[in-house]
Design goal:
This protein is an alpha/beta fold and about 220 residues long. The chain is built from nine helices and six strands. It is about 45% helix and about 10% strand. Strand 1, helix 5 and strand 2 form a beta-alpha-beta unit. It starts with a helix and ends in a 7-residue tail after the last strand.
Length: about 220
């Protein structure tokens, strides 16, 4: 379990200060220690707790430990999922009309101006029609599509060409792996993005060499 993994790191941490982030990182996740495991997420959990402790000890918000804040608010995108109905048969999202109604309600309630559709559920052409319906219903607003690497290269090319004229932020994880993503970029002119294929520094270097992905996303639930 995650709890057991954290407890197993106790011998590396007892006696260190919450301020010793680099010492902790080198003890837990240096290249040799991490050769056959990925301790990045465990280190991130410990580091996050230490930053909280540091801020409380110094009486300052966490952002002051990183040089100060740049803005007071950060814009978020709405997160649109296809959904089963609830126990009362409400809130189903399966059709383009249902998806648009859900997006419009989220915008009305929270003020979103960028909208992300999580796909890879239905046939690509159905999801393409849903995405195009979103664009038509929310003119001028920005869109993102993420099928979680579920598309074949052929389907990803067809889908990407079908949305090239829309106001896309990027085309996220349409296919799996850097070779396929690099190939896709030869056919589709939308910036591609990933938070699944490039998730460490070695892969980042390989991506720079292959020019596979334009936008490297840092997933807060991973890092």
């Amino acid at each position: 379990s995650a709890e057991a993994q954290i407890k197993a790191l106790e011998k590396y941490l007892v006696g260190t200060s919450p301020f010793d982030l680099e010492r902790q990182r080198f003890a837990i996740a240096n290249p040799t220690a991490s050769l056959y495991n990925n301790r990045t997420q465990m280190l991130a959990a410990i580091e996050f707790a230490c930053i909280d402790i540091m801020g409380k000890a110094l009486g300052v918000p966490a952002h002051q430990l990183f040089g100060g804040k740049l803005r007071d608010a950060v814009p978020f995108a709405s997160y649109l999922f296809f959904r089963y109905p609830d126990a009362e048969g409400r809130h189903e999202v399966r059709t383009a009309e249902q998806l648009v109604a859900h997006a419009v309600e989220l915008k009305r309630t929270h003020g979103f101006t960028s909208h992300k559709l999580k796909g890879g559920v239905f046939a690509p052409r159905h999801e393409l029609a849903c995405y195009q319906a979103l664009a038509a219903a929310l003119p001028g607003e920005r869109l993102r599509y993420d099928p979680n690497c579920a598309l074949s290269l052929g389907d990803a090319i067809e889908f990407g060409r079908g949305i090239e004229g829309l106001n896309n932020d990027y085309y996220e994880d349409p296919v799996w792996g850097m070779p396929q993503l690099a190939r896709l970029r030869e056919f589709v002119r939308i910036p591609t993005a990933t938070n699944t294929v490039v998730i460490n520094f070695e892969q980042l270097a390989a991506n720079v060499a292959q020019r596979a992905v334009d936008v490297i996303l840092l997933d807060t639930t991973f890092w």
